[in-house]
Design a protein that fits this description.
single chain; about 400 residues; alpha/beta; TIM Barrel; ten-stranded mixed sheet; 14 helices; 10 strands; Glycoside hydrolase family 99-like domain-containing protein; signal; WbsX
Length: about 400
């Protein structure tokens, strides 16, 4: 009987080992993690009174999306959001969006963040929507300070006249700069959902010339940004990951101070404290009135040039498209930017990331919801969920 029990036990152990081995063989291979960050334009909100001067109907810039045929009868642009004209400052709506984003491989939102006339602007989508969503821990977020001037572009009643009257300036002096930084450190950087690289909160600055001009020159800006980094350290972080929004590699720093000579870009960016680079839109550095695949070749050349000229980490950027005729009635238009070709662009970005293994695997996308610039991941009546599915194929369904 003893030998029978031992024999049976040995069979059980053998079967268990075989099943375990089989399970290990069938266990999916672990995939590399990528931080896929989509810019989020927070103008599609219904509870922000500061939006009313531009969009009086009370649905934010959805007004520009939905009334284009009234303003330009027969216009070719006739997109419709499959989710409807949602209020993204509603936490229930944002919860749905977080599920959709995370389920398709987008795990970071870069909120366009504004400050005009001494106070924040378009902040409700972040505060009332994202940060109150019950599933907010599924994603991270960080801020891109969109410190550009506001002209008539947002107001479609005036945009058609192509007048660049400045409504609000994005420039701030040192005192206001310090107010902004202290507020963001305390209100946002300390949140567990805030995106950090090596423990450092990431903060992007969109319009560097505007910042420099407001602060009074290059040297005062170097001083101000150094102060910002030190304040971030005082708050308990190892430092600040200051991200520069590139508008193409052919920029220079001449003319900001009394010295009119051209200064080495890489050196000056380091002096300013920038520790990473990315783009916001292809339209900033390529001819977007072209076929998408041709544009990608130019983008690839831009990335190679950045690698040669800068030793600050560059995080590859992919734009979905460009067509801002909903605002103005006419526009340069990216052609052939199908979901299939967008998928090719994402694979190009992933290859670039894999070729730079020492840096964080971050990729930026324009955008989650830039409807009036026709560069959005959200589903519509033209491509359905095609762009979101492309992200999922490249970053979640990896072979």
């Amino acid at each position: 009987m003893k030998y029978q029990i031992n024999y049976l036990w040995s069979i059980i152990v053998a079967v268990f080992c075989c099943l375990s081995a089989s399970a290990q063989q069938k266990k999916p291979i672990s995939h590399k993690h990528y931080d896929v960050a989509a810019f989020l334009y927070p103008a599609y909100a219904s509870d922000d009174p500061r939006l009313r001067p531009f969009w009086p109907s009370g649905i934010g810039e959805w007004e520009t999306v939905t009334n284009i045929q009234e303003r330009y009868p027969g216009h070719y642009w006739n997109r419709k959001p499959l989710w409807g004209t949602i209020n993204e400052a509603d936490s229930a709506v944002m919860s749905m969006e977080i599920d959709q984003a995370a389920g398709h491989g987008v795990n970071v939102f870069i909120f366009d963040w504004y400050w005009y006339d001494g106070r924040p602007f378009m902040e409700t989508t972040l505060d009332n929507g994202f940060l109150r969503a019950g599933n907010r821990d599924k994603m991270k977020f960080y801020l891109m300070w969109a410190n550009h001037d506001v002209v008539n572009t947002w107001d479609t009643r005036l945009a058609k006249y192509h007048e660049d009257n400045v409504i609000w300036t994005g420039r701030v002096d040192r005192a206001e700069f310090e107010r902004i930084c202290k507020r963001n450190i305390d209100k946002y950087f300390k949140l567990p959902q805030y995106y950090k690289i090596d423990g450092k909160p990431v903060f992007m600055i969109y319009d560097l010339p505007n910042l420099i001009n407001g602060l009074g020159g290059l040297q005062p800006t170097i001083s101000a940004l150094k102060w910002f980094c030190n304040e971030t350290k005082k708050a308990g972080f190892p430092g600040l990951d200051l991200q520069f929004t590139m508008w193409g590699s052919n920029f220079n720093f001449s003319g900001f101070d009394k010295d009119k000579g051209e200064k080495p870009k890489n050196t000056v960016l380091k002096q300013l404290g920038f520790s990473s680079l990315t783009h916001y839109q292809f339209a900033h550095f390529v001819n977007v009135n072209d076929d998408y695949l041709n544009i990608l070749e130019t983008v690839k050349q831009e990335w190679a040039k950045i690698d040669q000229e800068f030793d600050i980490p560059y995080y590859p950027h992919i734009s979905i498209g460009w067509d801002n005729s909903p605002r103005t009635g006419q526009s340069a238009v990216v052609k052939n930017n199908t979901p299939a070709n967008f998928e090719k662009a994402l694979r190009m970005a992933r290859e670039y990331t894999d070729a730079h293994p020492k840096q964080t695997p971050l990729i930026t996308i324009n955008s989650w919801n830039e409807w009036t610039e026709t560069s959005y991941l959200q589903p519509d009546n033209v491509n359905g969920y095609g762009y979101l599915e492309a992200v999922k194929k490249v970053f979640l369904d990896q072979n």
